[in-house]
C-alpha cells in the first residue's frame, strides 16, 4: 500500500476523506491509485488528521524506516517510489 493509501485508510477510508474534504470519492480514489496526495490538499488532510487524533508522521511508517523517511511523508506529494528510495 502506498503512503497515500495508508493516510486515507488511517483517516477512515476513501468515502470518509472525500466527505470531510468535500470532494468526490473518485478524487480521493485517484490519490490512492496514483500514490500521492496533492501538496495543496495537505492542509485539509492535516486538519482532518488532527481532528481524528491521527499522527501522520507515523502512518505507513515501518519499524525499520529511518526518521527522515517518515518525516518526508508529511508532504504527501511523494510517489511510492520516491518514498521507497528515501527509506
TrEMBL record:
Q: What is this protein called?
A: Helix-turn-helix domain-containing protein
- Membrane-traversing stretches: none
NCBIfam families, per the entry: carphisopro
> Which residue ranges are recorded for the region named Disordered?
65-87
| Source organism | Sphingobium soli
Amino acid at each position: 500500500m502506498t503512503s497515500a493509501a495508508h493516510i486515507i485508510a488511517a483517516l477512515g477510508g476513501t468515502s470518509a476523506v472525500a466527505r470531510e474534504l468535500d470532494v468526490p470519492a473518485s478524487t480521493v480514489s485517484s490519490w490512492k491509485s496514483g500514490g500521492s496526495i496533492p501538496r495543496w490538499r495537505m492542509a485539509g488532510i492535516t486538519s482532518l488528521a488532527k481532528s481524528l487524533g491521527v499522527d501522520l508522521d507515523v502512518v505507513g511508517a515501518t519499524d525499520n524506516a529511518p526518521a527522515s523517511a517518515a518525516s518526508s511523508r508529511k508532504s504527501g506529494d511523494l510517489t511510492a517510489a520516491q518514498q521507497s528510495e528515501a527509506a
